[in-house]
Specification:
Layout (H helix, E strand, L loop, with lengths): L19 E9 L7 E10 L6 E10 L5 E14 L4 E8 L3 E9 L5 E11 L8 E9 L2 E9 L6 E10 L3 H9 L15
Antiparallel strand pairs: 1-2, 1-10, 2-3, 3-4, 4-5, 5-6, 6-7, 7-8, 8-9, 9-10
Length: 191
């Protein structure tokens, strides 16, 4: 279910499907790096202004799904223009700063992005651009990232499937929204 908060800036309504905290797992595979499964936590929040604040943390998982070490962290801001064009700025823990441009698909919650500009500190890993695809599929947030370096052509390197994290405040809000005439046993509700 996609909720649209009453204090969400009107321009951000098409991005409402991103809002909240998400957690899940995915696969990281790029030449020169160890292939691994990773865990991820992502948050998209707003404060009433015309952008979403974004944070992502990933970590390497062992065969049993336990955290081994941090993998990548990034944060940034997402904006959408009236023509459904998306503008994203991100900063990663390795010293890479990116400006992404893209667009939202017609009639579905899907966003395609590509790097327009990027800068990196001298000790950052080699990087020359990337693409990302985000989609809201059956209640999950799914994404795939592609990247290229001077030595490696653009190719997929990370993808994940994330579930919405439900908080006690969410449960309380949903409980208050239940109809007053709901049967006591709950069974009749499904008949």
């Amino acid at each position: 279910m996609i909720e649209i908060p009453s204090d969400l800036h009107k321009d951000l309504v098409p991005l409402a499907f991103l809002l909240g905290n998400w957690a899940g797992a995915g696969v990281h595979d790029f030449p020169g790096a160890q292939k691994c499964n990773f865990g991820q936590e992502v948050s998209f929040s707003h404060d009433g202004r015309d952008f979403l604040e974004y944070h992502s943390h990933t970590w390497v998982l062992d065969e049993d799904g336990n955290k081994v070490r941090p993998l990548e962290s990034e944060s940034g801001f997402w904006r959408i223009r009236p023509d459904r064009k998306i503008e994203v700025t991100t900063t990663r823990d390795d010293g890479t700063v990116e400006i992404w441009y893209g667009e939202m698909a017609d009639q579905k919650p899907q966003i395609d992005l590509a790097t327009e500009t990027m800068a990196r500190l001298p000790d950052s890993l080699p990087y020359s651009g990337g693409k990302r695809l985000y989609g809201y599929v059956k209640g999950d947030l799914m994404w795939v990232g592609e990247k290229q370096t001077p030595e490696v052509e653009l190719r997929p390197y990370m993808s994940a499937q994330l579930k919405k994290v439900v908080t006690p405040e969410d449960v309380e809000r949903w409980a208050k929204a239940l109809p007053d005439d709901m049967p006591d046993d709950g069974i009749a509700f499904f008949k």
